[in-house]
Amino acid sequence: MQQSNFLVVGSPSDSGGELMRGLTSFPKSKIKVLLLEGVSEVAVRRLRAETFDVETVRSTLPPDQLKQKISEVHAIGIRSVTELTEDILKHASRALCVGCFCIGYNQVDLQAAQRLGIPVFNSPFCNTRSVAELIIAQIISLARRLGDRNKELHSGIWNKSAKGCFEVRGKVLGIVGYGHIGSQLSVMAEAMGMRVLFHDIIPKLALGNSRQVDSLDTLLKEADFLSLHVPATPETRNMIAAPQIALLKPGSYLLNASRGKVVDIPALANALKSGHLAGAYVDVYPVEPRESQSKSFESELIGCPNTILSPHIGGSTEEAQEAIGEDVASKLINFINLGSTVGAVNFPEVAVPLSGPTAHRILNIHHNRPGVLKDINNILSEFNVTRQVLGTQGSVGYLIVEVDREASKHIKEAITKLPANIRTRILF
User: Fold this and answer.
1) Nearest to 110 by CA among 346, 335, 322, 297
2) Pick from 333, 327, 364: which is nearest to 347 by CA?
3) What is the mean pLDDT of residues 71-88?
């Protein structure tokens, strides 16, 4: 594996930026960043302010082209469509980090990235309000059958009817997954007079008058509206299938703006066509077009009654994308400039304050196995160490160590020769 030897200063905005200015041997302007899928201009400006060489692409890239591009860059930013598989990542010989400018990260092979010594960052909460507002809007739209009425009127059909239309006040909203989005949705729904029940795999603090129930089955049986807000895991794959849909009240509604493989789509379509469910809102799908503008979308849900479909736009507001751009760009900058892995989803979270201009910071990523730290400390024992912090997660260990400037090159070369070494670089 190609080793990285970048000497990188902190940004002017951080506490050590002025302290380290002028100490670089590798110009920041040569740090190449590739941003795909129309990442927010806020992120572009933030990264360019660091004088990084930033290339932007409005869409995703075909796999062969992506392999070529990723081999040339030090950081890559994606949204929800680009898939960074192990086959893609193994070409990222220069890559220092990956930024997912979205809430999810299942489009990246996190284990492969970890084995290659590449931390992956995301933005777990910046689109929370946008998704919660969208769900509130769809709850009302489903209760008033606005999707069907809109389609009819566009076809010249005037169908003024109160049949099957309801207020949401007093209805039970069941939330599956009481995290950032689920809990905010809970507060907003209560403000509209809804009763809120929720299910989560761990005990959660119930906000307002909401209540956590003991099982998913209990929630299914009591909910008038069921809204899903869970990550993509083996446990959540098809967690709402025919048996679970059968437990829902006749005439209830299902909403999914979480992950596409959480719901068994054919089973949902059958429940809508049979009338067991009165309506559904779906924003995510098991298979989605790779391009933001496409005419290739197919789903069993097309044409189902009182079914509102949207193209994965839960977090697609200007406010959310700007906040995500700032959040993820800051995490990438902090890692490139300081070695901070705070906010990484596949790495131990380690951050170390600056010692001063007389020390060099060395970053080491190694296989997490017994004896590695002993071997590293044997090398360090001959020198003055100002700071040393180690974190481990899964198969990797991540070490930040600061040493006297005159010793850094020798230490880096010695650590690189260790069998457990994945990547070692002198940061500054």
Assistant:
1) 346
2) 364
3) 95
Collapsing DSSP to helix, strand or coil, 140 comes out as helix
pLDDT in tens, 260-287: 999 999 999 999 999 999 999 999 999 9
- Alpha-carbon Rg for the chain, nearest whole angstrom, is 25
Separation CA 337–CA 341 (nearest Å): 11
Q: Active site residue: 129, 145, 229, 259, which one?
A: 259
Contact 337, 425 (CB under 8 A): no
- Classified as helix, coil or strand, 336 is helix
In the annotation, is 312 catalytic? yes
Comparing CA positions, the residue from 97, 101, 44, 43 lying closest to residue 75 is 97
> CA-CA distance, 75 to 337, in Å (whole number)?
12
Q: What is the largest CA-CA distance in the chain?
A: 85
Q: Residue 134 in contact with residue 159, Cβ under 8 Å?
A: no
Which residues are paired to 263 by β-bridges? 240
Say if CB 110 and CB 345 are below 8 A apart.
Answer: yes
Is 129 designated active site?
no
Over range 422-427, report the average pLDDT. Answer: 91
b/e code 98-133 from CB counts within 10 Å (16+ = b): bbbbbbbbebbbbebbbbbbbbbbbbbebbbbbbbb
Q: How far is CA 322 from CA 43, 293, 298, 317, in A?
A: 8, 21, 30, 9
Q: Are 42 and 82 in contact (CB under 8 A)?
A: no
Among 133, 190, 222, 288, which one carries the catalytic annotation? Answer: 288
Is 152 considered catalytic here?
no
Catalytic residue among 74, 149, 312, 360: 312
From the list 91, 90, 80, 89, the residue with the least C-alpha distance to 37 is 80
Cβ–Cβ under 8 Å, residues 257 and 284: yes
Q: What is the pTM of this model?
A: 0.84
